Amino acid sequence: MALLDNLLTLHRVDSQVRALSSRVDSAKTYFAAQERQLGLLEKQRDELATQLRQLKASVHALELDQTTATDRVTKLRSELNLATNDKQYKAILNEMKVLEGQKDDIVRRAVEEMQRVEESTKRGETHASTIVERQKIREVAKGKLAECLAEVGERLSELEAERTRAADLIPERDRKLFDKVADLTEGQTMAEVTIVDLRHREFACGECNIEVPFETFARLSSNSESVVQCKACARILFLAEANRGGEKAKPERSKSGAGKSDDAPTPRKRSASSKAPLTEEEQLLKDKAKFEKTRKL
Ligand SMILES: [Zn+2]
Question: Could you give the residue ranges of the DSSP H alpha helices within 83-171?
């Protein structure tokens, strides 16, 4: 097989290897992202739990304060009956008044803190169900990664062996160039030369659309051993089978045959064997060919 055909075979296998590897990479990335998110949620859960513990402790302390104040008020009430003079009586009454005020304040604060406990508990519950959902997603991601590794493990080693065989058919210099371009273009190493306008000798790189000179087209058309890179995107250029003239053909000949890439064989077959009347398109191609010949004279 010609060098360009071997390069195309290598390209086909190489892009399969790359696609599989990138499938594994994206499965790994996805799984890692799930792990990260879950880690973050677990950290938040711990923070919420600490917050809830603190709130509960604060409610408990307030309850204790309330009991202390109540006890003191009860004690003062009994002392009130034992008061011997007006001054003493007023002092006890005054303290009781202050304590009642403090008790009201304690109750108000306790109610607030208990509301916060309730809210925090609810948040904790919602958070816990979010974690359960995330854990499910993480398990799916883990399964997909394992599945991907199992599938790819087998197929990848097959493909890598195939890639080595394909690469062995290519001279070292060209192989190195292939690898360099493959890395540069993420595996989009080869680009077909497209015929923009055959009559005006306009050709383009099928990948980046930059103009390809006629000399390159002619060289590729007559010689499948030529490695030519696109000047813009560095990809290795090739011609579709239908546009290749073969070793024996002159570039002019392949040019005269076709207005479109897949039309090339038709006029030749016609002129050789068929006596059926030409279609309009074939007639046009024939005229074009004639014109090209005359133009060259
Ligand atoms: Zn290009």
Answer: 86-168
Is 175 within the bounds of a domain? no
CA of 216 to the centre of ligand 1 (A): 13
Distance 292 CA to ligand 1 centre (A): 28
**Domain for residue 183, yes or no?**
no
Q: Distance between CA 228 and CA 192 in Å, rounded? A: 11
Domain boundary among 116, 134, 168: 168
> pLDDT tens digit string along 34-90?
999 999 999 999 999 999 999 999 999 999 999 999 999 999 999 988 888 999 999
Check pLDDT > 80 for residue 282. no
Q: Are residues 197 and 154 in the same domain?
A: no
Of these ranges, 86-90, 205-209, 249-253, the one predicted with the greatest mean pLDDT is 205-209
Residues 238 and 290 in one domain: yes
Cα–Cα distance between 61 and 66 in angstroms, integer? 9
pLDDT at 296: 46
| Inter-residue contact 253 to 245 (CB < 8 Å) | yes
Q: How far is the CA of 187 from the centre of ligand 1 (A)?
A: 14
Q: Which domain holds residue 117?
A: 3-168
Instruction: Kindly state whether residues 162 and 259 are assigned to the same domain.
Output: no
Q: Is the pLDDT of residue 259 over 50?
A: no
Instruction: Please tell me the distance between residue 9's alpha carbon and the centre of ligand 1 in angstroms.
Output: 20
Alpha carbon of 46 to ligand 1 centroid (Å):
55
Residue 192 sits at φ, ψ, to 5 deg, of -80, 140
Distance 221 CA to ligand 1 centre (A): 18
Does residue 271 sit in the same domain as residue 194?
Answer: yes
Last residue of a domain, one of 118, 133, 168: 168
Backbone angles phi, psi at 141, to 5 degrees: -60, -40
CA 182 to centroid of ligand 1, rounded, Å: 13
Q: What is the number of domains present in the chain?
A: 2
84 CA to centre of ligand 1 in angstroms:
110
CA 236 to centroid of ligand 1, rounded, Å: 8
CA of 230 to the centre of ligand 1 (A): 5
Among the listed ranges 89-93, 166-170, 222-226, which one has the minimum average pLDDT value? 222-226
